[in-house]
Amino acid sequence: MNPPAEVVTLGETMAVLTSPVGISLRMARSLDLSIAGAESNVAIGLARLGWPTAWWGRVGDDELGRLILATLRSENVSTAGAVVDSTAPTGLMLKELRAADLVRVTYYRRDSAGSRFGPADVPSPLPASARHLHLSGITAALSASCRQAADYALTAARAAGMTISFDVNYRSALWSPQEAGPALRELAGRSDIVFATRHEAELLLPPGAVSWPDAGDEQVCRALTELGPAEAVLKLGSQGALSVVSGAAQAVAAEATTIADQVGAGDAFVAGYLSAYLDRARPADRLKTAVRAAAFALAVTGDWEGLPSRHDLDQWRSAADGVRR
Fold this sequence. Notes:
alpha/beta; 15 strands; 4-stranded mixed beta sheet; UDP-N-acetylmuramoyl-L-alanine:D-glutamate ligase; single chain; 9-stranded mixed beta sheet
């Protein structure tokens, strides 16, 4: 049995079918079956780093839904708050790895069980053991009920004295910038930590907050904190990351690694950062842990399979040739 969850997440997790690297879907004769979801990726990442974690969501009463629950449980993520929906199917994602830096993703999630998640599905009261809530902008984009669930969970977490993190995770296939901007800005402003790329920051910030595209990364990050969060973290991909925490800025370079699959690296980054944050590590060390966790994910095909353990992070590049004997 898992220990009581200290970190809770909520959102949609789907089954994912992935073609072999370099092979188009139409030419593939076999596909790898796994699961994928921004929030559950973070939950798995935190669990591997030693944090008791729970995932809340809805899955269909089907084999794909059972796969999701079994996989999360096998990764020590509690699914006690998950709902099995007998009236809607589990969502499905098709992933085509034409090259490490060219990934095509297609979603089959309309009217899925996950999109029906609502406020009534959020455990009430929240677990007494929970100290941190993690949300993503994907949940708010899925449906009106999902958006209401995110709002309800955020309100309940704030009332319970929990800290809250929010990863913007903008998906243009789900909603337009005009619709997404105000909703995401409101969620970010009510969180303690916000994660964003420069593109997502441009979506979040009100007109005139900074001068695009000339604004520097630190200026953009400081503008994000002016929305309300005490910490803003700018994910800069191959350029590393930058944060502003209580007014102080720090930046780190990305870790050099072989790139097998870029999908899921942002979630690994968030899991690494939050683990260090919960460890009360210094802001600069939070960023170092985050980029290191992302490097592990980049080196492996799959959304979550390459997420590191705490031992992995401790042993990173401890031998000159990368081989530990």
